[in-house]
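Dear colleagues,

As part of the handover before I leave the project, I'm documenting each prediction I ran so the next person doesn't have to rerun anything. This entry is a single chain, and its sequence is reproduced below.
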Amino acid sequence: MGNEVSRARVLTVSSFLTNFAVQTYGMVTTPNMKDIAEANHFAFSPNPWFIAAFFSGQVVLQLAWIRKLFENDVPEGYQPIGSGASDVAAKQKQKEWQIALSYAPVYALGNFCIAGWLFFWLREDFKASQVLVTINTLAQLLAVAALPPLTPNSSSLMRLTHYVAKTFAGIGVLDLVDNGGVALQYHAPPTPLVQAATYAFFPLAAAASKPLFGSVLLYDIIAIAVGQSGVLGAGAWPTRLGWTALATAGVVGVKAVPTLKEHFSK
């Protein structure tokens, strides 16, 4: 497992630093990413401050996960046979490390894709940037689908792997529809069919997801609703997005009840 750990550490750190540097450049250059977003505001464009706020939280979460990858309690490939309980615990620890190491290349791919996305976004080449956000979003969603569920005994490494993967995938959904709307120059309000699909997608996707991923989808729809507020010619689109956000919040709340009961019953 030593080579896998070293490879994961290199991938995660290098991709994190690359994306962080590119995003920082995108904030201070002229025109910056916010200027481009405001000049190309279409039907699924969120309020840009929501993206900035999410990125800040993501940085903290990802650093906590990367720090875990550098801890010195990596299980060796060979484990001596001991008591039943300790043997089970050792196998569980090794499995959780393997899951984290398996996600590391997907995480790195996501960082490099988002760094590349910004390169094309600043040049207003939205079709090229769409290719990169599509790759990232699909990769992150597949990674989330492959994660085994958390249990009350899951380690902090396992929990952080879930948190990083699910927040990356969740904000990837917003990136996908936002950049897609810009690439297509799709003005608000969308067609009735697209509106209906939007109103149905977020609550249904939240219902089919764990509370954390559902919460990020809720964040996405709120960001779009706020971003569409005040757009000339948008009609009832922003208001209906607000109602969709409320319905999604209700679904997430109901889904979160068992998790909260489990937490407070400990």
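Residues 84-122 form the longest helix (39 residues). The mean pLDDT is 93.

All the best with the project,
I.
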